[in-house]
Amino acid sequence: MSAIVPALAGVVVAAVQSSFVEWAFHRYWLHRPWLPKGCFTAHTLVHHQLCKFDDTFHVVEEEQHEALTFQWWGGPLLILIALTPWTLAAWGLSHVVALPFVPFLIAMAVTMGVYYAGYEGFHHLMHLPRIPWLERKAFFQFLKRHHRIHHVRMNRNYNVLLPLADVVLGTFTTTAPARAKTPDSARLIARRHSGRTRQAD
Question: Is this prediction's pTM over 0.70?
């Protein structure tokens, strides 16, 4: 019974932290040409160009699949980075006070893993609908519209799964821009920076 409270605390803390980590990663690594520059290239110069306005938001062509998900190691690496400060703090405090750190850390790790899987899964379904019963749910439609707006207004709605950080940090909006057609130049930009193009060269 004593492990339930720290485990629940770990779930809440991890969910909140994950929203802010997602926001920061999305804004400062996926939309800024920092190191590793490949994150910016794949996300902003390929994914955002191939899946841009309403006419291209859904994946209907093979080339749009590129950069729809992260590399396999992306999730474990992000979870490791986010969990490291808590692990070090727990290790340090364990020498001072006897608290149930293990259930707290395990709950955090599991929650972060579920959050990441939810991010990847929901993002994939937003662009490539496959599960009608889920996609009809009001919460999914809300999140999908939230993300669709981001594809046009790239400085808004950075969260995909839990828009808590968007609300707190002032980037949340429900105002969708006027409908527009994806210009041919967007596809040309994507092809110029496409990993498939580089592999073919």
Answer: yes
The CA distance from 78 to 112, in Å, is 9
Closest CA to 171 of 192, 193, 194, 149: 149
Domain ranges of the chain: 4-196
Buried b (16+ CB within 10 A) or exposed e, 84-103: eebeeebeeeeeeeeebbeb
Residues 6+ apart with CB under 8 A from 49: 186, 187, 189, 190
pLDDT tens by residue, 113-166: 999 999 999 999 999 999 999 999 999 999 999 999 999 999 999 999 999 999
